[in-house]
Design goal:
Strand content: 25-35%
Number of strands: 16
Helix content: 25-40%
Number of domains: 2
Strand order of the largest sheet: 1-2-3-4-10-14-13
Distance between the termini: 42 Å
Shape: globular
Radius of gyration: 19 Å
Structural class: alpha+beta
């Protein structure tokens, strides 16, 4: 797959530069802070796909904008809690939108290597979405194996005009490097989330259960997945054995990976004709795992 580059010139010192190469897309972002004249909001976005087809900057259609952290239309899309516990940090009020284009030609290049026929962007399973910014800094977590495990910063994803949810599966230092997985494209924010981890875990487990129930699965596989998730919740709520909960969740993840593309749909396409059951369940399971690791480490 050939490399590509797309430059959006937004002013003398503002730009979004998008490049693609192989299975990866990268966007370098520098936008004026609001109000103008007080600096810039800077970030590097990296999207790593599992087996993409037709990945080009134009088809990815990644854009970015500086937002008002107190914009009620945006704030009401964040999880409701009080006092405000999920907020947009004024130091990094950046909204990233990825809306791959539906192109007028027929997609028929598949996933074979060396294809050059144009078509809609597609990918298998999940993508890893990472936002790196020096505009934020993480809170060091000594002795956890993850120096930013205690930070409140999270990567949130939501459909355009829809509710945002936490998809974080890691936060790394440098200064903040937030990562998460997805099975479909959306809008992305880094937010500060100070909700209790147990509350977050319950919400993520509920979302994963709902997605397993709505997926197109055999009854046997659905019951196996729900059984493992039930064991996760017993380990969390009854015994507070987070290591055991992670073990059960890892079994669930391995089962999904084994069935993806075999008897569970695992492809996403920008024409929205496919439902990526495997990718969406995997992304929900991975972010649940991140919260279980935080609980295991006392956060």
């Amino acid at each position: 797959m050939s490399a590509g580059l797309l430059l959006f010139a937004l002013g003398a010192a503002a730009q979004v530069v998008v490049t693609t190469s192989g299975n990866q897309a990268m966007a370098t972002i520098s936008l004026p802070q609001m109000p103008p004249g007080v600096g810039t909001i800077d970030a590097v976005v990296t999207i790593t796909f599992d087996t993409p087809a037709n990945l080009t900057p134009a088809e990815l259609n990644l854009t970015a904008q500086v937002v008002d952290p107190n914009d009620i239309a945006l704030v009401t899309r964040l999880p409701a809690c009080g006092p405000p516990c999920v907020t947009i940090d004024p130091a990094f009020p950046l909204l990233i939108t990825v809306e791959p284009l539906t192109l007028p030609w027929v997609f028929h290049s598949g996933f074979e290597g060396g294809e050059t026929t144009p078509g809609n962007l597609s990918f298998l399973n999940t993508y890893e979405f990472e936002i790196y910014t020096a505009d934020l800094d993480c809170i060091a977590s000594i002795g956890t194996g993850s120096p930013c495990l205690g930070t409140p910063y999270r990567l949130f994803k939501g459909p355009v005009s829809g509710s945002f949810d936490d998809i974080t599966d890691d936060v790394l230092k440098g200064s903040v490097r937030a990562r998460g997985r997805g099975g479909a494209m959306s809008q992305f924010l880094i937010v500060s989330d100070t909700r209790p981890s147990l509350n977050v875990e319950q919400g993520k487990a509920f979302n994963l259960e709902a997605r397993i129930r709505s997926a197109s699965l055999s009854d046997g596989l659905r019951n196996q997945l729900l059984g493992l998730l039930a064991e996760v919740q017993v380990s969390v709520l009854i015994s507070a054995d987070y290591a055991q909960a992670i073990t059960y969740l890892d079994q669930l993840i391995a089962m999904l990976q084994a069935h993806a593309g075999v008897d569970v749909a695992n492809m996403w396409s920008s024409d929205h004709t496919l439902v990526n059951d495997a990718g969406e369940m995997l992304s929900l399971a991975q972010t649940l795992r991140f919260t279980l690791v935080r609980l295991q480490n006392g956060f």
